[in-house]
Amino acid sequence: MEPMVAPVVVDRMFETSEPRFVDPDTNRCFVMVVLCPNDGERSYIETYKKSGQSLTTVTFKCPACERCFEVSREHIMVI
Ligand SMILES: [Zn+2]
Question: What is the model's pTM?
Fold first, then answer.
């Protein structure tokens, strides 16, 4: 599966503070993915913070260079 740009799904993850989303029609589970700014590797969530019901800060970690980083929401894709 290739990462998809799906801002509605990402917004829903932030609003529900649930960093995964299960599509009720297909039961497919989506998670956030971003590309590492160093090397373009797919990077997944390392940690996240909540405030009330919403996600505030999501930190990603690159499996190749082990860098941890944050990106703005519009750069987050799902896979
Ligand atoms: Zn990297």
Answer: 0.91
